[in-house]
UniProtKB/TrEMBL annotation:
Family: Belongs to the NAPRTase family.
EC number, UniProt record: 2.4.2.12
Domain of life: Bacteria
MF terms (GO), sorted A to Z: glycosyltransferase activity; nicotinate phosphoribosyltransferase activity
The protein's name: Nicotinamide phosphoribosyltransferase
Keyword annotations of the record: Glycosyltransferase, Ligase, Pyridine nucleotide biosynthesis, Transferase
Species name: Parasulfitobacter algicola
Region (Disordered): 412-431
Length: 478
């Protein structure tokens, strides 16, 4: 039997609502409302990526709009407060009932905060604030830090995936130009295989949408849903019919060739991909695709994409491409690199991450193979093998208004030797004379030049970004 509490299902009758906003914070923040100095009225905090992730030092800002949608409107109710108070008391905290009651009664549960941010899709160096948040009611100064958990989570994950994807697509695009003479098709060279390796549907949806800012190839359906629901994308990405080992091994070793033939005949046109290492990869490449099925492949009105799925990809990928060239032929680009006949290509999805992709492409180029021969499928390396520390994301309070004046707030632990020093005063970002984004105290930014613009105030979303606008901002900087 299941029980329903405010739209969420649970297994036990005494369940609590998982979408209760009061629960979406770190426990210790429940005690912070009375820790600020007397006379505190306003708190200003900022979010920034503090350091580079290996060679990734440019960060694509993305994902805030998803969170703003969840914060908009009346998001705190009397039922939520009545539920949270006893539940969290049992956890060890007397929560700030008066503060929440004030928000419910004065603002009908709308959050009295101002959020200012870079336009989504903006690319800025690490060390540049991407978002600023302040309370708009002096009685709600405690709310800024309370929301840190969900705001930081919303920004760091989406922006880190988007920045990783942007960097990888950029490296592919760069090498395509060298070997093929143009970057045509680069938006389909990095395919998202990450849904099954994500921690849940929402992670797959957010990360999947973030990848699609830079690419149009995905098997993560959840990302398409979020791209439409939160950014208005009609259809943000595309995929093709493809096999997996369960289908290719269903008829056993002796039936693999027949399964391959069946796959070709049931898909007489268009792009299709077939995993080919179920038993013997090179037998499949040379004897099946390049032998018994060669005429079928050439007769199709489309392209067969052969997928190796085991072994060292740095060695396997060029070996498979050259084996296919021996059977199907190849041409030479104007830049002098070999390119498979147009009916056949390769996709590598095993062992793929931001570093191995570069190693594979560099070995291909060393062997005279054009990057147009290959596409990559990236799974856990795209949506899961990263964390908040990858780009050093943090949200920090930098200024407090108390007793009639703003005061700097910062930390500078000696034991960290400067690596964790936070910024002082209300923070902003602007373009310098060379057009590069830089961090600046808000007070030092000329009027109208602050790149952090209002996007949310008192429960209302002030600015909506479309998926195509975000793509345009990010793609022009690839």
């Amino acid at each position: 039997m299941t029980y329903q509490n405010q739209g969420a299902f649970a297994l036990f009758e005494n369940s609590v609502a998982i979408d209760n906003l009061i629960f979406d914070t770190d426990s210790y923040k429940l005690s912070h409302y009375n820790q600020y100095p007397e006379g505190t009225e306003f708190v200003s905090s900022y979010i920034e990526p503090r350091r580079a992730w290996d060679d990734i030092d440019q960060v694509v800002f993305f994902g805030l709009q998803i969170e703003l949608t969840k914060l908009a409107g009346s998001v705190v109710t009397q039922a939520m407060l009545n539920e949270a108070a006893p539940f969290l008391k049992a956890h060890g905290f007397e929560i700030f009932v008066e503060g929440w009651q004030y928000i419910i009664e004065t603002y009908d549960g709308r959050l009295p905060i101002l959020i200012e941010a870079l336009p989504e899709g903006t690319i800025a160096p690490v060390g540049v604030p991407q978002m600023r948040i302040e309370n708009t009611d002096p009685k709600c100064f405690w709310l800024v830090s309370y929301l840190e958990t969900r705001l930081l989570r919303a920004v760091w994950y989406a922006s880190t995936v988007c920045s990783l994807s942007h960097a990888v697509v950029g490296s592919i695009r760069e090498r395509l130009k060298i070997t093929d003479g143009s970057d045509a098709g680069a938006e389909f060279k990095l395919h998202d295989f990450g849904a099954r390796g994500a921690t849940g549907f929402e992670a797959a949806a957010i990360g999947g949408a973030a990848h699609l800012i830079n690419s149009r190839g995905t098997d993560t359906l959840a990302g398409l849903v979020y791209a439409r629901n939160f950014y208005g994308a009609d259809m943000a990405g595309f995929s093709i019919p493809a096999t997996e080992h369960s289908t290719m091994t269903a008829a056993g070793v002796d039936g693999e060739l027949d399964q391959m033939r069946r796959f070709l005949h049931t898909n007489p046109s268009g792009l299709i991909a077939c995993v080919s290492d179920s038993y013997d990869l090179m037998r499949a490449v040379k004897n099946y695709w390049g032998g018994a099925l060669r005429d079928d492949v050439l007769a199709r009105d489309g392209v067969l994409v052969v997928r190796p799925d085991s072994g060292d990809p740095v060695q396997i990928v060029p070996d498979v491409i050259e084996a296919l060239m021996a059977k199907f032929g190849y041409g030479t680009t104007a830049q002098g690199y070999r390119l498979l006949a147009e009916k056949v290509r390769v996709i590598q999805g095993d062992g793929v991450n931001k570093d191995s992709i570069i190693r594979i492409m560099d070995v291909m180029m060393d062997r005279g193979l054009a990057i147009g021969n290959i596409a990559f499928g990236m799974g856990g390396g795209l949506l899961q093998k990263l964390d908040r520390d990858s780009l050093g994301y943090a949200m920090k309070a930098s200024a407090i208004y108390r007793n009639g004046a703003w005061h700097d707030v910062f930390k500078d632990p000696k034991t960290a030797q400067g690596t964790k020093t936070s910024r002082k005063g209300k923070q902003g970002a602007m373009r310098n004379d060379s057009g590069r984004f830089v961090a600046r105290p808000a007070a030092n930014i000329p009027k109208g030049a602050d790149a952090l613009v209002p996007v949310f105030r008192d429960g209302n979303i002030l600015k909506l970004h479309s998926f195509e606008d975000i793509r345009a901002r990010a793609w022009t900087q690839l």
